[in-house]
Write a structure and sequence with these properties.
The chain is α+β, with helices and mostly antiparallel strands. It has 33 helices and 23 strands.
């Protein structure tokens, strides 16, 4: 089953078990009395493959730097993607974590561009700005306006060739602390310790893939400055790197620019990626780990060949058929039919030298995990022996090719594809080899690959609810003086080039139509790729839940794609996969939507499927009971997740329990409601909110409006509203309570990190003009260089990242601070946050450099921010939600340039009142409570709930 995710990111974010039918090997058919829908016809995979092409040219500088150029003139932006041929697998013993550490260090400034790299980049107006490290590579990427390209190349070349003079002992110590907090943040999640156990079990001592990318904190703490510098000298030379320029550029323009900025960098040593065999366990390893989780998880893992192996695609297809597709074998058997699991997955993680084949099953509470494990092993053995069907293989291929097409809309997406091919296969066109392999793979090849690799001994780990083992913290600094390092001889370069004039955003024209039943259609034309995106949106959302029936709306939505009156859940999944379409039913606090993304060649049948999901839910009693159990299990899991715990706790504290916004931002509700809901309740919920007189359809397509409207009319034009009344949300009678500045500590024992989640309701609504307020908050809370992140992460090193933001809702909006911090600094971090807010709001507002950075960043990033059809669709929807004009995005640049620091300060000071904040802290009370008591604010301690 594919559990619907909840939107925590927007803020930052009991049934008796059925007895397993162990002899059954396929999903139960639909009842004979249920009418069957005709199978939808999809375009052949070969037609889709023919539409995928990324033209490129390649050249090499004298210092060995490989440069690839892809021209795409759809927008005045260029993606700069720099890939270094070094990852954690290349780290020798005693130096684990160095590659990832340098990912951080390379954002700290360079010799000719000192200070924060991100601060300088923010001035360029980038989108997709980040860096990542994995086993096989380190990459940095940004998409910048064309007039800012030269400055971006200067900055990238300066950190490639002239970095070490800016890496001193204080910078090294600070970033080690940040990395430690990144590790704590990951470890603090449910099941967060599994990866370490998996790698140590699958790979023997000394194997390059045995240690995690984040590495050993002991190794990082023990490293001297000179050791760290030498790691850079050995691995980050131009002859060990690839630069891809993708977008508004051609080779004739790119070649002199690359020579100018990168040509003088000296070659470094050649890094030959570490060789790594595919190990076979001598015997199965069976292990159990306990963790503070709500659901027992069964895992099965094998080391398998890497991405260049002939078996990579067959194994990936096998994983998808087994547990990756929504119609997978494990979904049909364990989740839908036998109902002994609430979530399943199977996947292939393919790396350069090796891959990891994973299976994961979350056992339904109350069911014997041992029985489920034996049943899982029987299903897997049968699948390995018999293999997939031709039709299953074809559905995987269609879905893969469709996903690849949609991923190529962004110039950065195409840059990544070309870089990966060059890095691992020496061929930027390697993606075509993969596409051809998916299009031609046979069931026999899949079966043979699985029999070759998955019949070997398995790593079998169960993660069960219980106490975690004692968490091993990084050792405190010894206090000894660090070993001195030689002084770096800096090399002067020509001055950094200026940024040219960046044109204002040209947002596509918005057109409108209406279906014969009155449903309004809002449309924009985008023809970058042959893809259509549709959102059928309803004025509902989680705020539609009655205060005494929380979770009803989300459960109703969960059931929409679990069966219609003519297609059961498996048939819906198979049709979606056959079409290469994605149908997703989702909700925010204010709106509910049924969303479709599909290759345009399959638009008509995909709309038929979308319409069936929206209009004809079966609400079959057996599916209701299954989804009820799944929702209850998910609710229990939320109570073990620090982010979800906080997202459940804060809204009623600041809005009051009677407000439509005064409930969990996850929409998951409560046990009492989920247990009591009947089929009649769910049908009534659907009739009240999911109806044509409450709908608007938003579309972005490469087809003209007339063609799209005709296909929408065929799918939705004859839809009629039910006789019952349309639902209403009552904000008028739910007054926001008077704010009370206090701390609510939610005890989550054994947490190596605390999550601080504080905020208040502002006296403004999403329909107000919040431009100046949001611009002010770039400096205060939302940007990497914001006051609060600069303090807690970049100065103190207590957090991996801190953010404060105005969360856009239709009515009264909240301001929320999200700050995961190391547990022993929880009280200090709350105090530091309060101090930063007080300083900004009382005496020290937006400074000239901050004003310039905010205006430049917010205006120059617009072209990259609306590069894709998905981004444009989101703009159409947000304009409708907040009552904005169609040209809102086109006027953002001129309106932003007109803002002054005084206007920004005033906008923030009028509405943000830190002395009204409620601070929710999720952490280990035995560690955190004394720290919080010392702050002098009223303190309440609660269990996780």
């Amino acid at each position: 089953m594919r559990l619907r995710s909840v939107s925590l990111a927007a803020l930052l974010a009991v049934i008796a078990p059925a007895a397993p039918v162990l002899a059954q090997t396929s999903a139960a058919p639909m009842a004979a009395t249920t009418p069957q829908a005709a199978e939808l016809k999809a375009a052949p995979v070969s037609q889709l493959v023919a539409e995928v092409d990324i033209p490129w040219t390649r050249f090499t500088l004298d210092n060995g730097l490989t440069v690839i150029v892809h021209e795409d003139r759809k927008a005045p932006v260029v993606a700069v993607s720099v890939w270094y041929n070094v990852g954690s697998k290349d780290e020798p013993a005693g130096s684990t974590g160095f590659a990832h550490l340098f990912e951080h260090l390379m954002f700290g400034g360079s010799e000719n561009a000192p200070g924060s790299y991100l601060g300088r980049m923010r001035n360029l107006g980038p989108s997709n700005l980040n860096g990542t490290t994995w086993f096989d590579r380190t990459n940095y990427f940004e998409t910048v306006p064309t007039p800012a390209l030269e400055q971006a190349l200067f900055l990238e070349s300066d950190r490639m060739g002239y970095l070490l003079g800016e890496i001193g002992q204080p910078v090294l110590d600070l970033q080690r602390g940040v990395v430690q907090n990144e590790k704590r943040q990951g470890d603090n999640q449910p099941y967060g310790m599994f990866e370490y156990a998996q790698l140590e079990a699958l790979f023997p001592e000394g194997h390059p893939y045995r240690h995690s990318t984040i590495g050993s904190m002991a190794d990082l703490d023990a490293a001297s400055l000179e050791t760290v510098r030498n790691w850079f000298r050995e691995n980050y030379g131009p002859n060990n790197a690839i630069v891809v320029l993708s977008g508004d550029i051609d080779e004739a323009t790119a070649r002199p620019l690359m020579e100018r900025y990168f040509g003088a960098i000296a070659r470094g040593p050649v890094n030959t990626p570490a060789e790594a065999d595919v190990p076979t366990l001598a015997a199965p390893i069976v292990a159990t780990m306990t963790d503070r989780v709500a659901t027992t998880r069964l895992t099965r893992s094998w080391a398998v060949p890497g991405l260049l192996s002939d078996d990579a695609v067959p194994l990936s297809v096998g994983a998808q058929v087994l547990g990756g597709l929504a119609s997978s074998r494990l979904d049909n058997l364990l989740v839908r039919d036998e109902q002994t699991a609430v979530q399943v997955s199977s996947s292939l993680s393919d790396f350069h030298r090796i891959g990891i084949f994973d299976i994961s099953v979350n056992v339904k509470p109350g069911v014997d995990a041992g029985e489920v494990g034996r049943r899982l092993d029987a299903i897997v053995a049968d699948f390995i022996a018999r293999g997939p069907t031709e039709e299953e293989v074809a559905r995987v291929a269609t879905r893969y090719v469709s996903g690849r097409i949609q991923s190529l809309e962004q110039v950065n997406g195409k840059a990544n594809v070309l870089a990966e091919g060059q890095l691992y296969a020496g061929d930027p066109d390697h993606y075509k080899t993969e596409l051809a392999a998916y299009a031609s793979v046979t069931p026999a090849q899949v079966t043979a690959a699985m029999q070759r690799w998955l019949t070997r001994p398995v790593f079998d780990m169960t993660i069960a609810p219980g106490e975690r083992e004692a968490y091993v913290e990084a050792a405190a600094p010894s206090g000894a003086a660090p070993a001195p390092a030689a002084e770096i001889q800096r090399v002067a370069r020509d001055p950094m080039p200026a940024i040219g004039q960046v044109p204002d955003l040209e947002f596509p024209a918005v057109e409108r139509a209406a279906l014969s039943n009155g449903i309004k259609v809002v449309y924009a034309h985008v023809d970058t790729v042959p893809v259509t995106r549709v959102a059928v949106e309803f004025d509902a959302g989680y705020a539609a839940d009655r205060a005494d029936r929380l979770g009803a709306h989300a459960m109703m939505l969960d059931l929409l794609d679990e069966g219609t009156t003519t297609r059961d859940a498996n048939q819906l999944a198979e049709e979606e996969e056959r079409l290469g379409a994605s149908v997703n039913v989702a909700a925010s606090m204010d709106r509910t939507s049924a969303e479709l993304s599909t290759v345009t060649a399959n638009l008509a049948p995909s709309l038929t499927l979308l319409s069936d999901v929206v209009r004809n839910p079966a609400f079959a009693p057996a599916e209701i009971e299954r989804i009820r159990a799944s929702r209850l299990s998910g609710l229990a899991s939320e109570k073990t997740n620090p982010n979800a715990i906080a997202a459940r706790a804060l809204p009623p504290l600041i809005y009051g329990a009677d407000s439509p916004y005064g409930r969990s931002f996850t929409g998951s509700g409560d046990e009492a409601t989920l247990t009591a809901l009947t089929r009649a309740d769910l049908t009534a919920e659907h009739d009240a909110w999911v109806r044509p007189d409450n709908a608007t359809i938003f579309v972005v397509s490469d087809l003209p409006l007339a063609q799209v409207t005709a296909q929408l009319e065929a799918a939705f034009g004859d839809w009629r509203a039910p006789a019952t009344a349309k639902g209403t949300k009552d904000f008028a009678d739910a007054a926001v309570p008077a704010p009370t500045n206090r701390i609510v500590l939610i005890d989550r024992p054994q947490s190596p990190q605390s999550l601080i989640y504080g905020g208040a309701v502002l006296p403004v609504s999403g329909t107000d003009d919040l431009l100046a307020l949001n611009a002010a908050n770039v400096t205060l809370g939302s940007d990497f260089l914001s006051r609060i992140n600069s303090d807690l992460r970049e100065t103190k090193g207590w957090s991996y990242g801190v953010r404060g933001g105005v969360n856009a809702l239709e009515y009264r909006v909240p301001y929320i601070v999200n700050a995961p911090v190391q547990a022993n600094r929880t009280g200090d971090s709350v105090a530091a946050l309060i101090a930063q807010y007080d300083r900004f709001l009382q005496t020290d507002g937006v400074q000239p450099t901050e004003l310039e950075r905010t205006i430049n960043g917010n205006t120059r990033s617009l072209a990259g921010g609306f590069e894709t059809s998905g981004q444009i669709l989101g703009a159409l929807r947000s304009n409708a939600l907040f009552g904005r004009p169609d040209d809102y995005q086109a006027t953002l640049a001129s309106r932003t340039r007109a803002l002054t620091a005084a206007q920004m300060d005033e906008a923030a000071r009028q509405v943000i009142k830190p002395n009204q904040f409620v601070w929710v802290v999720v952490g280990d009370a035995s560690v955190v409570r004394p720290q919080l008591e010392a702050l002098g604010l009223p303190l309440e301690v609660r269990p996780a709930q």
